[in-house]
C-alpha cells in the first residue's frame, strides 16, 4: 500500500521552524561575523598603521591600500576594523567616524560625497553645490567638531576606471585643494588588483601607495575554520556534518586548485542547507554540498561535459594551462609560455606539436565552447600578448577528467605505419 502524506501536513511541516537553519541571516553577504579567522593579522596590521591617530587625531592623514582577489575578506575585515577601532578610540576620549562607501555603486564623486555626508548625518543641500564645495562642508564639520574620519573607498578600482583623473586627484590630495592645515581625513582604498593603480598619474599614485596590505586567497584549512564558525552561527546544532564542511573547503581552497573565495564557499554551504531542507533530510550531507556545487557551477558542469568530446591536442593545451597554473600560481598564461609548455608536453607524449596557427585555432574553438577565456595583456607587460585562462575554476575533478580523457585518446591513437 502506497503511503501518501497529506498536503496539509507537508505545508505544516514546511511552515514550522527549520530543523536545519537556526539563523540563516548569518549566511548573508552583509552579515558581519563576530570573529574573522585568519584575518587577525590584517586587523593588527591596520591597527599599527592607524596607531598614530591616538597621538595626533587632529592633524594626521593616513592612507592604506587593501588589495586581494574576490571573496578574500577585504570588505568584511575593513568594516570590522573600522567599527572596533572607532570604539577603542572612543574609550580613549577620541572622536572617530568610520564611513564605508562602495564606489561600484557611485561612479562619480558627487553621489559619493553625498553618501559620506549622509553617513555622517550631516545635512547638506543637494543642489547647487560643486563636489569641492560639498567636500569642504564635510571637512569644516569634522574640524569644528574635532572628529577624524576614516573613509573606506571599497571597489576603488571602479572609480579609477570611470572617474576623471582630476576627481581622483581632488579626492586624494584634498588638503592641498582645501588649503587647510588641519588633517582630519584618512583613507582606506580597497581594490581587487593594485595593478589598476598604474593607470593613475605618478603623483596621485605615490600619494596612495604608502601602505599596502595584501589579502591572499584562502587555503582549504582556512576556509574550514571560516565555515565552521558560520555553521555554528547559522545552523541548528549537529546538523552539518564535518565531512560536508571539509568537502566545501576543498572545492574552494587555493591549495587544492580552487579560487580561495570565502563568499563562494559560504554560498555553497547555504545552498547545501537549502537542498537538505527541501529533501527533508535531518542533516546536511556531502551529497547536498555536491549538488549545491553543481547548481552553483552550472557552467563548470557544462564544461565538464565537453571535455570528453575534445580531441587529443586541445586536451594537451588544457593540460599545459593547468601545469602552468599550478607551477606559476597564476590564473591566466601568456600565449608564448603556453606554446612552450604545450610543445614540451607533446615531446613527453611522443606527439608531433601542431603549428602556431593551428594552436590558435584550437584556443579560439575552445573559447567559443566556453572552455577558455582570452584577454589582451594590458600595459605593464612588454608588447601585447594574449592571456589565456580556463573559464571555470581548476579543480581536482577537472584535472583528473582531463588526464583521464587524454590518456584514453593516447591509448587509442593510431600508430603511424
Ligand atoms: N576571515 C573570515 N572570517 C569570516 N568570514 C569571512 C572571512 N573572510 C571572508 N568572509 C566572508 O566571506 C564573504 C566574502 O568576504 P568579503 O565580502 O569581505 O570579500 P571581498 O574580498 O571584499 O570580495 P570582493 O572583492 O568580491 O568584494 C563575506 O560573507 C565575508 O563575511
Ligand atoms: Mg568586497
TrEMBL record:
PANTHER family membership: CELL DIVISION CONTROL PROTEIN 6-RELATED (PTHR10763), ORC1-TYPE DNA REPLICATION PROTEIN 2 (PTHR10763:SF31)
Superkingdom assignment: Archaea
GO biological processes: cell division; DNA replication
MF annotations from Gene Ontology: ATP binding; ATP hydrolysis activity
Residues annotated as binding ATP: 72-76, 218, 230
InterPro entries: AAA_22, Cdc6_C, Cdc6_lid, ORC1/CDC6, Orc1/Cdc6_arc, P-loop_NTPase, WH-like_DNA-bd_sf, WH_DNA-bd_sf
Residue ranges of every copy of the Cdc6 C-terminal domain listed in the record: 318-402
SMART domains attached to this UniProt entry: Cdc6_C
Family that this chain belongs to: Belongs to the CDC6/cdc18 family.
Protein name: ORC1-type DNA replication protein
Biological role: Involved in regulation of DNA replication.
Keyword tags: ATP-binding, Cell cycle, Cell division, DNA replication, Nucleotide-binding
SUPFAM superfamilies in UniProt: P-loop containing nucleoside triphosphate hydrolases, Winged helix' DNA-binding domain
Keyword Cell membrane: no
